[in-house]
Design a protein that fits this description.
The protein is of the alpha/beta class. Strands 2-3-1-4-5 form a five-stranded parallel beta sheet, with helices on both faces. It folds into two domains: 118 residues, Rossmann fold; 76 residues, no CATH class. The longest helix has 27 residues. α2 crosses α5 and α4 crosses α5.
């Protein structure tokens, strides 16, 4: 292990259930760093909003002067250069904030492990901080249904965004463990097993 407490990165497709796995690990004593939430926090910083507005115009700013995430998502999902530009702006900020939280959790005696719930774990280079990476596997049909219900996305929205990320096969092969999220009861058992193995140094 790189630190006294294991740092567990979660990887998987959009809508695979990474946050569900993170919540289960939290119940087992882990602290969770949610990179999506940090990204939203960073995106709403005034200097970031000013920069993306300069790049892409007023449509990316909501009437309440916060970032219009849906408008930004559409832009970066269709334009790889725009995505790279946004990542270059946000990733250093997300990295810095994540490391602050990591240090805080590492110092907390109540925390047994730290879980990094990051949609772009590999793309943002956050895997370099992790002792173990867990890939959450879910079939595409389930993921399509989930993002349609939770986010209002079409199947094409999902595919377009995933095509701009590293392939799922790459993430799966790089992971130390694979958890299959097809049955909730079995998912709980798998999470408990993997968490226990990681805590014991596996």
């Amino acid at each position: 292990m790189k630190t006294g407490k294991p740092i567990i990165g979660l990887a998987g497709g959009i809508g695979s259930g990474k946050s569900t796995v993170a919540a289960m690990m939290r119940k087992l004593g882990a602290a969770v760093i949610n990179a999506d939430e940090i990204g939203h926090e960073m995106l709403d910083q005034p200097d970031v909003i000013a920069e993306v507005q300069r790049w892409w115009g007023s449509s990316v700013v909501s009437p309440d002067d916060r970032a219009n995430r849906e408008a930004i998502r559409l832009i970066v999902s269709r334009d790889p250069q725009a995505r790279t530009r946004l990542e270059g702006l946000l990733h250093p900020r997300i990295d810095r904030r994540s490391r602050e939280l990591l240090a805080r959790h590492q110092a907390d005696p109540e925390v047994r492990a730290v879980v990094w719930d990051a949609p772009l774990l590999y793309e943002a280079g956050l895997d370099r901080y992790c002792d173990r990476v867990v890939f959450v596997e879910t079939d595409e049909a389930s993921r399509v249904e989930r993002v349609a219900r939770q986010r209002g996305w079409s199947p094409e929205d999902l595919r377009t965004l995933e095509n701009s990320q590293k392939p799922l096969d790459f993430k799966r092969k790089k992971a130390d463990y694979v958890i299959n999220n097809s049955d909730n009861d079995d998912l709980s058992r798998q999470v408990e097993d993997v968490f226990s193995r990681i805590l014991s140094g596996g």
